[in-house]
Amino acid sequence: MIGSGIEEIGLETTEVRPESTGRDIAIGVGGIIVVIAAAIPIVWGLLAVGTMAYALVSGMLAGSAGAEL
């Protein structure tokens, strides 16, 4: 549609300011920080559950040798 066609339907044409590169970088860095902050408790929980599972399985594989002491 050309400029006069836009004006015919009652819309005004104005120039759109280009996106700021600094703003885009700030949004990207903020997003990465949010993802890392969300991943920390998940990794902490996985390590805790993994440690407990390892202790349980290694205790079961070792048998009851420690129970007699």
Strand proportion, as a percent range, falls in under 5%
What Rg is obtained from the alpha carbons, in whole angstroms? 30 Å
Net shape:
rod-shaped
Order of helices and strands: HH
Mean pLDDT: 82
- Give me the count of strands: 0
Distance between the termini: 88 Å
Largest sheet: none
Q: How many DSSP H or I helices?
A: 2
- Estimate the helix proportion, in percent: 55-70%
Structural class given helices, strands, pairing? mainly alpha
Low-confidence stretches: none
Keywords: Membrane, Transmembrane, Transmembrane helix
Protein name: DUF3566 domain-containing protein
State the gist of this model.
The protein starts with a helix and ends in a 7-residue tail after the last helix.
Search tags:
transmembrane; 0% strand; mainly alpha; 2 helices; 69 residues; DUF3566 domain-containing protein; transmembrane helix; membrane
What would you say this structure looks like, in words?
This protein is an all-alpha fold and 69 residues long. It is 70% helix and 0% strand. It starts with a helix and ends in a 7-residue tail after the last helix. The model has no long low-confidence stretch (mean pLDDT 82). Keywords: Membrane, Transmembrane, Transmembrane helix. It comes from Agromyces lapidis. This is DUF3566 domain-containing protein. The chain crosses the membrane at residues 25-57.
Write the layout of secondary structure elements.
Elements: H1 3-8, H2 21-62
